[in-house]
Design brief:
With 177 residues, this protein is mainly alpha-helical. The chain has six helices and two strands, in the order H-E-E-H-H-H-H-H. The protein has a two-stranded antiparallel sheet. It is globular.
Length: 177
């Protein structure tokens, strides 16, 4: 029998994320105020305060864990929690690397993003566990809303890239027969 990501585990993980994000928001509040991130770094455009992450991040965490569980419990699924954990960890490491480069003004973010786009041709990096790792890893630096929005767009692009490659492979196979 496969290991499941049952509801109690999803709730515990979501509660841990809730405590972490609200702890971070409280820290920010006590140490100079809750940061606001402006669209395109332009203060004339609307700002998104980090406290929105305290509301949205626990919900998106639970939702993504639910989606992962739905995929695991399919009878034909070959997914394991170990694979999913490694995917989550790679998304988290990617986000933390981007965050550190951004905070330290290291100019390799474009190269890292290019590498990720190349990886999208080979790996299904649009999956929920990659996205969850990205959102949790980038939330400390960018708040939660910006990584969720940007990550959603990236996942859509990665989904199209990955399935387009699969479609082209199947076309080439059918032409070869």
């Amino acid at each position: 029998m496969k290991t499941q990501l049952n509801q109690s585990i999803r709730i515990v993980i979501s509660l841990a994320v809730t405590l972490l994000i609200w702890g971070h928001i409280a820290w920010d509040y006590v140490h100079g105020g809750i940061p606001t991130h402006y669209i395109l770094h332009n203060k004339d455009l609307p700002g998104i305060p980090n406290w929105w992450g305290g509301l949205v991040l626990p919900l998106i965490t639970y939702f993504l864990l639910f989606r992962i569980q739905q995929r695991i419990k399919k009878p034909a699924s070959k997914e394991t929690l170990q694979k999913i954990g490694l995917r989550f960890l790679s998304g988290l490491i990617f986000a933390v690397t981007i965050s550190i480069c951004y905070m330290q003004d290291i100019q390799i973010v474009d190269f890292i993003m290019g590498l990720v786009f190349l990886m999208a041709f080979i790996f299904p990096i649009y999956k929920s566990e990659y996205f969850l790792g990205w959102v949790l890893g980038a939330s400390f630096t960018f708040g939660a809303i910006i990584p969720i929005g940007f990550g959603s767009l990236l996942c859509l692009v990665f989904f199209i890239i990955y399935h387009l490659v699969g479609f082209i492979k199947s076309l080439l196979k059918s032409k070869g027969n």
